[in-house]
Amino acid sequence: LGPIGFAAPWLLWALAALPILWLILRAVPPAPIRRRFPGVALLLGLTDDDTVSDRTPWWLLLLRMLAVAAVIIGLAGPVLNPETRSDTDSDAPLLILTDASWASARDWPATLKLLDRVLAEAGRDGRPTAIARLTDPGAPVFQAAETWRSRLSGIAPQPWEPTDAMTEAARAALPDSDFETLWISDGLARDSRAALLDTLKSRGPVTVVEGGRPLVVLGPPEIEAGQITLHATRQRPGTETRLPVIAHGSDPAGNPAELARLTLVFPEGGLEASGTLNLPNELRARLTRFEIAGQGHAGAVTLADDRLSRREVALIEGRSGR
Question: Which residue ranges form the domains of the chain, and what is each CATH number?
Fold first, then answer.
C-alpha cells in the first residue's frame, strides 16, 4: 500500500468483519446499571406502551471500531518503505557469513542491526537462513529466519582472527546445495579468502559487505631516554585524523585509573602516526595498558610491560671485617 508494506498481509482480511461487528454492537444495548431505590414499589403494576431499547452511542461504536482496526493492522506487521523484490531476487536459502574477528568488534552493533534487518526480510520471504562465523567454523544450519533473530543477542565476535585452517574448515563444511551468501567482512586481507569465495560463488550469488571506517591498530610501546613512544597504523589512507590514546593504570590505592592521555595525528594520505609520553617513574611503574579511544577492538589495545618501569636498586654493604 504505497510506502507501507505488511509482514502478514492476509490478516488485513479481518477488517472486512468490522461492519458485522458494528451491527452486533448496535443491536446489543449496554449492560444496565443496578441502583437500589425504595420508592420503586410505587411503580409496581404500571405499564408503558412505548418501550424502546437503548442503543450504544455512535461515537462509542466508532471508537471501538477504530481500536479493533488498529489491533488488526498492528498484528499484520506494517513496515515503512519495504524493499520491493525484483525479478532477479532469489527464493533460495540464505547463508549469512561473518568473519566475527577482533576487527569486527568495533562495528558489531551496526552488524547486529544489519543482521536483524536481513533476517526480517528473509522471514517475510519465507527463506531458510543460516548464520556462520569464520572464527567458529561449523556446518551451516538452515532454519527459519525468526529463529535466528531470537538468537542474535548470543552472537558475538571473538578476540582473534580466523586462521587459514578455520577458513578451510568453514569451506569444507558448506553444503553442496545451492544457496545465496551475504558475507559480512571485517575488511582484512587473508590468503585463504580466495578459495572460500570461489566455493561460495559456485553455490550461488555472493554479496560482500565491509565496514566504512578504516581500522586503526596500536603497536607495542617503546621507551628511550625516559620517554614512551607509541606507534599506530591505519588500514588505508585518508584525511588528517586525530585519535586520542589513553594510558591506563592504577592509582596509589590500586584502583584502575587514567594516568595520561596523548593525541596521535595521522597526516592526510598517511598510514602511520606516532606520539611520545614523558611520565615520572612513579606513574610509569603503575602503567598497565594503552588504548585508542573509540575503537573498541583488541587491535587498539597494547599492554605495558616491565620495560617501561625503572626499578630502584639499593646496595647494602656490611661492616668491614664481618
Answer: 1-31+53-83 (no CATH), 94-210 (3.40.50.410), 216-308 (2.60.40)
Tens of pLDDT, residue by residue over 162-220, are 999 999 999 999 999 899 999 999 888 888 889 999 999 999 999 999 876 788 899 99
Indicate the pTM of the whole model. Answer: 0.63
| Grid-cell match 610509569, residue found | 284
Cβ(215)–Cβ(299) below 8 Å: yes
pLDDT in tens, 29-81: 666 677 777 776 777 777 766 665 566 677 777 888 888 888 888 777 776 66
Q: d(Cα 279, Cα 290) in Å, to the nearest integer?
A: 14
Question: For the CA atoms of 131, 93, 141, 168, what is the dihedral angle to 10 degrees?
Answer: -70
User: Alpha-carbon Rg of the chain, whole angstroms?
Assistant: 34
Residues in Cβ contact with 210 at an 8 Å cutoff, skipping those fewer than 6 apart: 185, 186, 187
CB crowding 234-273: b at 16 or more within 10 Å, else e: bbeeeeebebebebbbeeeeeeeeebbebebebeeeeeeb
> What cell was used for 85?
523484490
